[in-house]
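Task: complex structure prediction.
Instruction: return structure tokens for all chains below.
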Amino acid sequence: MPTPPPIAFAHVAKSFDGGRVKAVDDVSLEVAEGEFLAIVGGSGSGKTTLLRLANRLIDADTGSIRIEGEDVRSVDPVALRRRIGYVFQSGGLFPHMSVAGNIGITPKLQGVPAAEIASGVDELLDLVRLDRAQYRDRFPHELSGGQRQRVGVARALAARPKIVLMDEPFGALDPLTRDALGDDYRALHRKLGLTTVMITHDMTEAILLADRIAVMRAGRLLAQGTPLQLSKSDDAYVGELLRTPRRQAERLGVLLPRDGAA
Amino acid sequence: MSLFSDPRWSEALAHLPDYLGNHIRVSVTALALGLLLSLPLAIAARNRPLMRGALLGLASVVQTVPGLALLALFYPLLLALASLSFAWFGFGFSAFGFLPAVLALALYSMLPVLRNTITGLRGVEPAILEAAKGVGMTELQSLMSVELPLALPVMMAGIRTAAVWVIGTATLSTPIGQTSLGNYIFAGLQTQNWVFVLFGCLAAAVLALGVDQLLALVEAGIRARSRVRAIAGVLGIAALVAAALVPSMARGPSSYIVGAKTFAEQYVLSALIAQRLQAAGLSATTREGLGSSVIYDALLSGDIDVYVDYSGTLWANQFHHSEIRPRQELLTELKTALARQNVTLLGELGFENAYALVMPKKRAEALGIRSIADLASHAPAMSMAADYEFFSRPEWAGLREAYGLKFRAQRQMQPDFMYAAAASGEVDVIAGYTSDGLIAKYDLVVLDDVRHAIPPYDAIVLIAPKRAGDRTLQAALQPLLGRIDISDMRAANLRAAGGDGASSPDTVARWLWDKTAKQ
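Output:
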């Protein structure tokens, strides 16, 4: 019997305001082990709701969600969240805790001894390429946006999860930082053998980082597949989403000759 | 002579450990109780709009009740509760002093703490709350390690406001029998001892500012995440509390407590009794500024051991008689009635402090007024002033009925200002006290009560039920009985109102002893 997929949505629906707003509408989606999936869509497409359903920050109305084969409704939500890493939009760091305090929070909640947490924090700082001594005792307001997001990633990885969910993690960063952070995370994803689901509204970012892309609009899953598979889709919205990166690539190819881009 | 060479400063200073210690004790206990009640309520109400509205509304209503009234209301309430508890469970508790003060002040402290805690908790960003959930916190963990720490600076601001309010309002707990820095203020107002009033106000202000600054240190420590500062502030408050507790532990528990109502004569007489007890080798302290309705109940329950009351006052207020009896008859009946409640009427001091209608002597002569009966026809064109309770007392009803009195206007005044108001013509007639020294000073005259509508008001010494068989106490007070006549008491009262270094109750009491009973 094959191992069940880390994440499996089956006919999931969720509405708000007493059924008036259908945020997620009959979505079925599987994420394979070791896969990096990007969910792309505009605001109000339901992509963030879908992510929040996966670790029971909210509960689905109908359909089933399985994490590593277990229906999420049958597990304790707190325990579930502790074994899934979650990177929040613009960090979501606790402003009253130091970098070390933020990173070590989930192990601390699990009752890991302090000394073990401290050494773990240092390793994680290395992993997200922040200098241990320099950043360990700083507070979030003393960090740049990129550094905050690195800490956010380190915090999500602290309890050594197999699954990481990321809600527009790099959206608010400047292009250079964003690029560096994306590459660094992609490397971590491989090195640690993670299964990652990343929410983004930026198709270019999705194409550059993800193995597979799911496109959402108005609560429905329009298409899913590798960038190559998507480019063959005849859905008008998917085509529209792909047009921007394509045009950018063409224009960049013209404007930046290969030998000048060292 | 410099302002500070006045001996009253050092006298005030001598009371400081007792008054300040009590003030801190009652304030800190009230504040702690207020926090204990407010914090869980605020936390429970933060996500419940209905409960939030109800709580804040209720706390605001409490806030609009004047502090003095709130404190005064708790006394009868607790008295009723205490007697219920005695009837049902066989034990009572003291409804006097500490307990009603703490409860009323705790209630008073709740609004700022509730409001700021709710505001602080609701001010935590939703994204942070979701992050707390997302990293795997339970609701309790989220509250304790994220929401409360983030709300703490706002909460501390509320606690600071509450602390300042409580320390200020605690000065009003003196009339319900809780010693506080208000003792300076109440005593000072009654005996025109402005040094005491000023000292009391300054001490309360310094205490409030000091506590506020210590709490500010804690708050700044929290804001700047500096443990050193927060701990320094907490240690400062702990030291203050510890310092306040030390003198109370050192004091012996078997000391006699002499009660005094809220006017100068009572301060002098309580000082005199305390001096006599001390001379007999007993340890005695005074509990001054007690409300007229509080003091008898305090004697009954043993919170005070001895005090001086007036026969007519007890007759009308405590035993609810409206008919007037001849002096001796009334005393005999009163003695029996008191004995039924196990209160000992030790004897009369020798003078009467009756209510009397008083007006300027010259004006009375000019109008041909010698008695209240003569006054009645002039009254509709005249204004009258009395103390805060006179117009609601049965004596006034009796007086009005007996003579058909009806004045153009009636005003309530602080007793000490009444005589000057009559002398200056600001009011025409006042309900003064026969033993008051100011009658002679301002050249006023007491109008005859020809129809005997005002009951006799002999000054009598009352002893608490628990001291009923105390021969040492009785022997110590025996020399005072029948020895203080009206002219000596008037002279003593005039001295007490002198507003100088020789006017402290202790000094006047010593003078009175030398002048009268000592021979």
